């Protein structure tokens, strides 16, 4: 008699799934390598970017949902790109076998990393994501309002007004004394 298959977690099936995933990964790379030599280079670029995109899944699974900095996706325009966020993306190099991780800045485009291997680009993207998350934390951190300087008070307005009144009274007295002196001399 044959035994019925046991449902649930079978330790023997887990290595098979990992081996199948690795085999699919290898087959995609081989297909992309063969396609890179053939006329359809654009499809090879997209295939390579999809491989990288799959490799980045664990990284973006760790990013909290409330952080909406990253919008990952492959654009299939004239030059296929794997977008990480609004200003950073991965594009294939001129030989279509090298990954180039670039960031657009106000001073132009800068290359953050360049490699033939997927793990090297995954590491560079991981560093970039971490830096962007720290920048976000700093931007959202509460700041204390500036404290007024110690020992320095605002000038009192009464002092200015009393100086004006005192000057006016002294000036009036001086004019009165001068007029009195001039009238005494005329006598």
- Order of adjacent strands in the largest pleated sheet: 1-2-3-4-5
Mean pLDDT: 81
Structural class designation: alpha+beta
Task: Please report the distance between the alpha carbons of the first and last residues.
Answer: 152 Å
Percent helix, as a range, is 40-55%
Number of strands: 5
Biggest sheet statistics: 5 strands, antiparallel
Based on the structure, what is the oligomeric state of the protein chains? single chain
Measured by DSSP, the beta-strand proportion falls in 5-15%
Helix/strand order: HHHEEEEEHH
Radius of gyration: 38 Å
Notable features of this structure?
alpha+beta, 187 residues, disordered N terminus, 53% helix, 5-stranded antiparallel β-sheet, 5 helices
């Amino acid at each position: 008699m044959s035994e019925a298959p046991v449902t649930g977690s079978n330790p023997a099936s887990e290595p098979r799934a990992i081996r199948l995933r690795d085999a699919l990964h290898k087959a995609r790379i081989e297909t992309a390598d063969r396609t890179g030599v053939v006329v359809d280079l654009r499809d090879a670029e997209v295939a390579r970017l999809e491989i990288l995109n799959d490799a980045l899944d664990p990284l973006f699974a760790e990013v909290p949902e409330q952080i909406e900095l990253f919008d990952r996706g492959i654009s299939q325009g004239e030059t296929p790109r794997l977008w990480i966020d609004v200003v950073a993306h991965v594009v294939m190099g001129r030989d279509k076998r090298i990954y180039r991780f670039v960031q657009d800045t106000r001073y132009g485009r800068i290359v953050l990393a360049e490699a033939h291997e997927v793990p090297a680009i995954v590491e560079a993207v991981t560093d970039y994501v971490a830096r962007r998350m720290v920048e976000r934390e700093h931007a959202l951190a509460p700041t204390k309002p500036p404290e007024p300087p110690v020992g320095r008070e605002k000038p009192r307005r009464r002092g200015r007004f009393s100086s004006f009144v005192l000057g006016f009274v002294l000036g009036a007295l001086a004019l009165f004394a001068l007029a009195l002196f001039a009238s005494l001399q005329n006598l």
